[in-house]
Amino acid sequence: MLPYLFLLGAMIGSALNNIVSAAFTRRNVNRANISGIYNILVTSSAALYWLVLYLSDFSFDPKVLVYSLIYGVFYTMAFLGLFMALACGSVSLTAFVKQLSLIAVAFWGFFFWDTPLSVTTIIGMVLIVAALYLCFKPDKAHHGERVSLKWVIFSLMLLVGNAGCSITQKYQQKLFDAQHGNMFMFFGVLISVFVSLIMYLRGKKCRLRDISKVSLVFPILGGISSGFLNLFILLLINSTMSESIIFPGIAVGGLIFTTIYSLAVYREELYPRQWAGLGVGALALVFLNL
Asked: pLDDT tens digits for 179-220?
């Protein structure tokens, strides 16, 4: 029962990441180049979150720093890939690739972690890919968009980087007997803070005083929710739950919670295919748990 509570927490953490990002953007809709400030605040808040956990349960093993560095490299790949893919391609297709990266982690488990593979698991995985496609497929107004080689390259960076973060978490916890998780995450996220700062200094800047003061709470909440999401992932990969449930579950569950919030708060309307996608996603979770 406890692993399913962890999975629910991870789903909510994933959804909160999307929700606070959207809220920040909506409050600063007429301000340009706000992503740099947002990323610095998010990563700094996440680093402070992990610092508190790390100091409350201090441990140190220099070998763990190697995995923190690898995590930081993958995070940077994901961050740059997402940023550049959104700049030169479809937002919907880029979001699809981001969610698909969690499915890639499950496939890695089948090949390298001896994750059990059953007929119902295969059906569930296929249904999840179909659900994500239905939800993120561009509408008719965007059918003219062309997929460029640049977008493909940056999307592959996003997919490999995002999947690599979760895979590195699993290996670190597995090789160190579920120890030093807080240390691993703190130093890994700290690298992302420096990367965000460098990108901000090198790019077009938006000053902090130009940001809506009310909206500054959202990136802080984004960093905290990111911390909770990754904490639940660490707990899940050390539990008895299969990776074939964990990562696809986070992908679809986070999407469902985000959609429910958007419908209730922003009164957004969904296309029929998106409703179908949510239904297929819920059905996929049933198959994964059989």
From this structure: 999 999 999 999 989 988 888 888 776 777 767 677 888 889
What pTM did the predictor assign? 0.86
Compute the half-sphere exposure of residue 94: CA atoms within 13 Å on the CB side of its CA: 24
Look at residues 128, 139, 142 and name the one whose alpha carbon lies nearest to residue 270: 139
CB 45 within 8 A of CB 224: yes
For residue range 260-280, list pLDDT tens digits in order.
888 888 787 778 888 888 888
How far apart CA 285 and CA 132 sit, in angstroms, is: 13
Rounded to 5 degrees, what angle do the CA atoms 154, 156, 159 make?
A: 115
Q: Which helix (H) or strand (E) holds 106?
A: helix 91-112
Listed in sequence order, the DSSP H helices in 28-90 are 35-56, 62-88
Mean local confidence (pLDDT), 273-289: 84
How many angstroms separate the CA atoms of 230 and 169, rounded? 9
DSSP 8-state class, residue 144 = T
